[in-house]
Amino acid sequence: MYYIINKFLQLARQIKPEFSEAGENLIKGYYVASRTLRVNDIQLWTPPIGAVKVVTALSEAHAKLCLRDVVTEHDAVMAILLYEEYVTIRSGNKSMVIGNSH
Question: Per-domain residue ranges for the chain?
Fold first, then answer.
């Protein structure tokens, strides 16, 4: 089993994924929306510009684990969900809630 996992990881490391336009736009849109929501709500924590780099790296890693050479919207969504979980744990505020919370 260790051999199979090791071979899989070697293969994944060799992939250099390129961003699809949709994946790139989703990450940019997330950052702008997240920053706007958090600033408007006057929360204690706003996402730094480095958040884009983190979400980008997570998106690329997800694409590699799926053995794809293109970062898709799906990869970007998974990265955003992971980053939002980190933000929630760090600040206690989950800002990317859609719809009424009633």
Answer: 14-91
Beta carbons of 79 and 27 less than 8 angstroms apart:
yes
CA atoms within 13 A on the CB side of 67: 5
Q: How many CA atoms lie within 13 A of 29 on its CB side?
A: 9
pTM of the model: 0.79
Q: Residue 72: which of 22, 25, 28 has the closest Cα?
A: 22
Residues 26-44: pLDDT tens digits? Answer: 999 998 888 777 666 555 5
DSSP for residue 19: E
And the tokens for 79?
Answer: 């990265």
**Running DSSP on this structure, what letter comes out for residue 20?**
P
CA 14/CA 87 separation, integer angstroms: 30
